[in-house]
Amino acid sequence: MINESSVASIKHISRVLLATVIAFILMVCIFTVTAFAGEAGHYNVVINDNGYEYTIATKETEPIEILNEANIKLGSQDKLNIASFNSGIGGTIHISRLNRIYIKFNNTVKSYDVYAQTVGVALDESGVYKDGLIVNYDNDTPIQNGMVITVDSPKIVTINADGKTYNIGTVNSSVADLIADAGITLGDNDYTEPTLDTFAEDGMEINVYRVEIKTVTKNEKIAHKTNTIKDSSLEKGKTKIETKGEDGERSVTYRITYINGAQSEKREVASTVIKKPVTEVKRVGTKAVVIENNGVEKHNGIAVGSVISGSYTHYCACEICCGKSNGITASGKKLTNGMDNPYYVACNWLPLGSIIEVNGVTYTVVDRGGSGLSRTGRIDIYTPEGHDAAKKNGRGSASIKILRLGW
After folding, report:
1. Which pairs from 294-297 meet CB under 8 Å and 24+ separation?
2. Beta strand extents in 260-383 (DSSP E only)
3. CB within 10 Å: which end of the chain, N or C, has fewer?
4. CB of 218 closer than 8 Å to CB of 249
5. Section 243-265 average pLDDT
6. What is the number of other CB atoms lying within 10 angstroms of the CB of residue 86?
7. Alpha carbon distance 141, 147 (integer Å)
8. Which pLDDT score, from 0 to 100, does residue 8 have?
9. pLDDT tens, residue by residue, 23-73
10. What is the pLDDT of residue 131?
11. d(CA 182, CA 227)
12. What is d(CA 172, CA 389) in angstroms, rounded to the nearest whole number?
């Protein structure tokens, strides 16, 4: 039999307990709403600073402002990667710090600037082959600026290949083994110094030479020869071209060897004549020069027989050289390009008709020129081969002997 007073008491307790639970739930809801209200507009961002991660809640949307809020400063050469960051949503901002580390190879210390975050990656970035070496840090140890990494090995070998340098530790390996360890493949003609069968010594430097062989075919000039004939009918110092020389042409094939991009050997392997050269026949005068005396011994202080140090240029009968195209000189002599060489000169300081010897060749003064030719010793030599030949002959110094003054 159930006591009614007991039942009433239980019901009362249940109502009190239910009211307490409801009140607690309401308090939790109010606290949660208040907390969320305080965080409204914030989102979480992970900052990976060279391997160290931080998570902050922020309202900022710009990566630099987020870093400033976290009191994180960037160096002038540090790199920022925001590929994994979404403004206003979250993600990760990656910072790669440029750190200077020191790697000690068997008591030799070298400095390296690296962006690596761990020791293992830093050694790779510095060109240090890690297999077989004893390192004072684990590969995943975070990099710190100024860190000294000690690498111990019985032998440290340097390999220079393709513009890169590899520092490799070894115990007992041949050059061929070390080349393979560095991931370097040799072509059929490539070679190394020392040779592949040489065994490593501490401090050894291995150089890889890339050899490229090319076959090139091109056309080349065959220079013509000159046959000189003495001619007693020509005055001494004068010449006459009997047969004009012409250069020939040939097709030639070369085998060219390049070592590390630089030409080291060029060898002719085949040749075919396309056009034979024509030998030039030139007559050289041997006849003694007879100068008819006109009785004039002196002009403006210059005497027959005197020798003057001067200079020469060359000109032709074209309008560019003469300022006119009819070829008529100041003495009335007519010049034409292509004529036999008359051995004429132009100058303003000697009378027309004067005969001079210039570096062993006899010339007659038949023309005048610009003010520059008024200086004693300055002459312009006529070139019948044309303008290009005149330019090619150029200018030079001359020893001028006065043989006659005027006609």
Report:
1. 294/404, 294/405, 294/406, 294/407, 296/351, 296/404, 296/405, 296/406, 297/405
2. 262-275, 280-287, 298-299, 302-303, 307-315, 344-346, 355-358, 361-367, 378-382
3. N
4. no
5. 97
6. 12
7. 11
8. 43
9. 555 454 444 444 443 456 899 999 999 888 989 999 999 999 999 999 999
10. 65
11. 64
12. 70
| Token representation of residue 389 | 């030949």
| Mean pLDDT, rounded, for 386-392 | 95
Give the per-residue pLDDT at 202.
Answer: 86
The separation between CA 132 and the C-alpha centre of its own chain, rounded to angstroms, equals: 39
Whether this prediction's pTM lies above 0.85 is answered by: no
Q: How far apart are CA 283 and CA 230, in angstroms?
A: 6
| Long-range Cβ contact pairs of 273-277 (< 8 A, separation 24 or more) | 273/222, 273/248, 273/249, 274/219, 274/248, 274/249, 274/250, 275/222, 275/248, 275/249, 275/250, 276/222, 276/248, 277/222, 277/223, 277/224, 277/225, 277/245, 277/246, 277/247, 277/248
CA nearest neighbour of 400 among 342, 341, 346, 360: 360
C-alpha distance from residue 242 to each of 62, 227, 245, 342, 361 (Å): 89, 10, 9, 15, 19
Matching residue, tokens 């003054």: 405
Q: Are 166 and 158 in contact (CB under 8 A)?
A: yes
d(CA 321, CA 386): 10
Contacts of 383 (CB under 8 A, 6+ apart): 314, 315, 316, 389, 390, 393
Arithmetic mean of pLDDT over the chain = 88
Go through 40-67 and write b for each residue having 16 or more CB atoms within 10 A of its CB, e for each that does not.
Answer: eeebebebbbbbeeeebebebeebeebb
Closest CA to 270 of 220, 213, 211: 220
Q: What is the pLDDT of residues 164-221, one digit of tens each?
A: 999 987 867 899 999 999 999 999 999 999 999 999 988 899 999 999 999 999 999 9
Residue 125 in tokens: 């970035």
Bridge partners of residue 271, in order along the sequence: 252
CA separation for the pair 337, 317 (Å, rounded): 6
CA–CA dist 334, 382 (Å, integer): 12
Question: What number is the average pLDDT over the span 257-283?
Answer: 97
